[in-house]
């Protein structure tokens, strides 16, 4: 079976999922080509698992200070004509299946050319009824408009009595340790000056900040580091807590390593607002009130860490499911995987 795997590269979580799926698909003897869109190629890193991958412009969001989505800039920086050209010229002859991690070019090309498609992404959970006040604003229609697929597999921290799978993340590569004064920070849309203003007030802690920089740099009790998948996971394994936005992938890895989380959702980004509300109800994180409430930050720093909560091997199960023609109902696959993981009990279905 020959597969084209399309990945929305705007967020690192999509790429991380593809990194997990790549060896699992290869282990099933499947031939896979990869296509990435939504980020300039020069901004991609640690791409060795994907071989001779391709890039397209695709669609992406533009963010302002504090992570607020800039609607007008997003509209101006996305070209519908280029998107249509990329969809129309992507030749899928010779492919038996398209997998889309919420990637529009491959998904729409598959729809136009009649190639079977499977969607594997967190965003596909919005096809189902989720708890919270934000879910209704991101409808299944919007999801289908962005990246339509024949079979959609959604991923979340709880099944909510729906055919939703656990998070698709790599198993821990490092033992979970604890450096009590070390806090890992990933807030890519905050300015360096803003981060220094917030965290320099807590001199008893070391804040390890991953950001868009060329060389590591220490400034007071903040250490700025360039993006590195391996370095980031090592710091995640040893830190006393994580401060990040409300992305799905990093939150899942934080839960798996048993680290407390202080989460700052992007303003105006419905997916992140929904994530923040659900993770708070599930007891997975403390959600920031506004930009940065220093009293809230101080209280969070003093909280203990939860126990690690490893997720099952979702990648291996999905790769086998795909190799066997994805005939097993998604609900059956989901039930089997959740039986291997103790889902959070703080939120009951329909709450």
Biggest sheet layout: 7 strands, mixed
**Largest beta sheet: what is the strand line-up?**
9-10-8-7-11-12-13
Q: What is the distance, rounded to the nearest whole angstrom, between the alpha carbons of the first and last residues?
A: 42 Å
Indicate the CATH class of the largest domain: Alpha Beta
Radius of gyration: 20 Å
Q: Assign the CATH topology of the largest domain.
A: Rossmann fold
Quickly give the CATH architecture of the largest domain. Answer: 3-Layer(aba) Sandwich
Low-confidence stretches: 343-351
- Which percent band covers the strand fraction? 15-25%
Order of helices and strands: EHEEHHEHEHEEHEEEHEHEHEHHH
Helix/strand/pairing category: alpha/beta
Number of domains: 2
Estimate percent helicity: 25-40%
InterPro entries: MJ1255-like
Pfam family, one: Glyco_trans_1_3
Organism: Marinobacterium rhizophilum
Protein name: Glycosyltransferase
Plain-language structure description:
- The protein has 351 residues and is of the alpha/beta class.
- It has two domains: 195 residues, Rossmann fold (3-Layer(aba) Sandwich), CATH 3.40.50; 120 residues, Rossmann fold (3-Layer(aba) Sandwich).
- The chain contains twelve helices and 13 strands.
- The strands form two sheets. Strands 9-10-8-7-11-12-13 form a seven-stranded mixed beta sheet, with helices on both faces. Strands 3-2-1-4-5-6 form a six-stranded parallel beta sheet, with helices on both faces.
- Strand 11, helix 8 and strand 12 form a beta-alpha-beta unit.
